[in-house]
Amino acid sequence: MGVIYAGQLAIMLFVAGPFLITLGIHLSSALYWPLALVIFLLIPAVPLGISLLLVVPLMILTAGTRRRDMFRVLFGLLFVAVIFAFQYLNTNMIRYGPDTLMARLMEKDGLVSVAAGYYPVLKWAAWALTGTDFVRRASGLALYSGISLGLLNLVIGLTQGWFLGG
Question: What is the DSSP code string of the chain?
Answer without folding.
Answer: -HHHHHHHHHHHHHHTHHHHHHHHHHH--TTHHHHHHHHHHHTTHHHHHHHHHHHHHHHHHHHT-TTHHHHHHHHHHHHHHHHHHHHHHHHHHHTT-HHHHHHHHHSTTHHHHHHHTT-THHHHHHHHHH-SSHHHHHHHHHHHHHHHHHHHHHHHHHHHHHHHH-
